Amino acid sequence: MNLDNLIRDIPDWPKPGIMFKDITPLLQSPAGLAMAVERMANPYRATHVDLCVGAESRGFIFGTAVAQALSAGFVPLRKPNKLPFTKHSVEYGLEYGTDTLEIHTDAIAPGQKVLMVDDLLATGGTMKAACDLVRQLGGEIVGITVLIELSFLPGRDLLMDFGDVHAVLAYEGE
User: Fold this and answer.
1) Average pLDDT of 96-113?
2) Catalytic pick from 95, 102, 140, 174?
3) What whole-number distance in Å separates Cα of residue 55 and Cα of residue 128?
4) Which of 39, 56, 58, 140 is catalytic?
5) Is 95 considered catalytic here?
6) Active-site residue, 135 included
7) What's the CA gap between 28 and 124, in Å, rounded?
8) pTM tops 0.90, yes or no
């Protein structure tokens, strides 16, 4: 099965000049979703991952599925004011402004092996913020796995300090 056939291009969304990679057809395909999760998890099967971490919202979809495939737990990273317990926060830059991610202070124990999971790697800002939060809690990042990498953007370069970056699909141009 060619997973690329399950990614729909939406031109000029969310703004003119952007070619949006829509994953909803892949999510609707039982075989496509299963294959995507397996291909995201497989490079880390011998790593003995303790936890997968995914940021709101599509990181939840793939993070929990990859965690299940690796017999690991899952830790959600949330937008502000969504977590009920004590938390750490990190603010990070976006193309136009800033955003914040939060994690419970007891979500990761020092030394736990953590796999970072998301649907898309573009500029790398969200993933870097997520990795920074995991390191604040003492987690050992064993890798980053994503379904799609927009390799014409500098996301991978921003993540060099966090180990291996694995992308199932890479797009070299808009």
Assistant:
1) 94
2) 95
3) 11
4) 58
5) yes
6) no
7) 26
8) yes
Backbone region of residue 127 per phi and psi (left: phi > 0; alpha: psi in -120 to 50; beta: other values): alpha
Rounded to 5°, angle at Cα 145 from 13 and 55? 60
- The bridge status of strand 8-11 relative to strand 19-22 is antiparallel
Contact 38, 24 (CB under 8 A): no
46 has pLDDT over 80: yes
Q: Provide the residue type at 143 as one letter.
A: G
Residue 147: pLDDT band (50, 70, 90) is very high
Radius of gyration of the chain (CA): 16
Sequence letter at residue 15: K
**Percent of the chain clearing pLDDT 70 (strictly above):** 98
> What is d(CA 51, CA 32) in angstroms, rounded to the nearest whole number?
24
Contacts with 42 (C-beta within 8 Å, 6 or more apart), sequence order: none
CB 82 within 8 A of CB 55: no
Q: Kindly tell me if the per-residue pLDDT of 96 is higher than 80.
A: no
Two structure tokens written together for 50: 């303790």
DSSP string, the chain: --GGGG-EEEET-SSTT-EEEE-HHHHH-HHHHHHHHHHHHGGGGGG---EEEEETTHHHHHHHHHHHHTT-EEEEEB-TT---S-EEEEEEEETTEEEEEEEETTSS-TT-EEEEEEEEESSSHHHHHHHHHHHHTT-EEEEEEEEEEETTSSHHHHTGGG--EEEEEEE---
